[in-house]
Amino acid sequence: MDFIKTESKTLYEGHIMDLVVDKIRFENGKEALREVAVHASAAAVVPVTPEGKIILVRQYRYAVEEDTLEIPAGLLEKGEDPVEGAMRELEEETGYKPKHMEHLFRFYSSPGFTTETLDCYLCDQMEPSVQHLDEDEFIDLVEMTPEEAFRLIGEGKIMDGKTVAALSYYCALKNRT
Q1: Edge-to-edge, what's the strand order for the sheet holding 31-39?
Q2: Counting CB atoms within 10 angstroms of each CB, which of 25, 71, 106, 130 has the fewest?
Q3: Dist. CA 57–CA 66, nearest whole Å
Q4: CA 19, CA 35: separation in Å to the nearest integer?
């Protein structure tokens, strides 16, 4: 259905996102409001050890008030290529430097309200390096088999959307070969 934007108001300008309210008019004359989080893009990586284990990060997430298990990920810096961002985040969060990255897919985190896109990568060739955590970042590393991770998704113990999507995709690829 076609529409036109008749008004747009920025309610908040933040570090990682702006909040915008748009008024739109549909071709049938009806009007509606749309609230949009104009969000920075991000990159994520499924790191796999030579033993076939996936490295996840456990960290406290303020918004949901609990520890989560996630693949390493982070926001892209302005103008940063997604693969470079994924490589940077992998080393910063896990202390492993990637030797090879394979792009898996790109997706919208929640297109009903945000512009955020995420690029997901696979890294199965890494070398030890040093973690470079931000001063407000507290991360524990957790290694598990793909089967264990997939089971934790089903049990509701891995609930982060990017992690669910990337691990499900990785497990499907692994089982096809």
Answers
A1: 3-13, 17-26, 31-39
A2: 130
A3: 13
A4: 7
Distances (CA, A) of 143 to 25, 48, 176: 50, 9, 23
Of the candidates 51, 65, 135, 155, the residue annotated as catalytic is: 135
Of 29, 147, 154, 131, the C-alpha closest to 72 is: 131
Cα–Cα distance for residue pair 48/94, rounded to 1 Å: 12
Which strand (E) or helix (H) includes residue 63? none
Instruction: Say whether 65 is catalytic.
Output: no
φ, ψ at 91 (rounded to 5°):
-70, -45
- pLDDT of 23-61, one tens digit each? 999 999 999 999 999 999 999 999 999 999 999 999 999
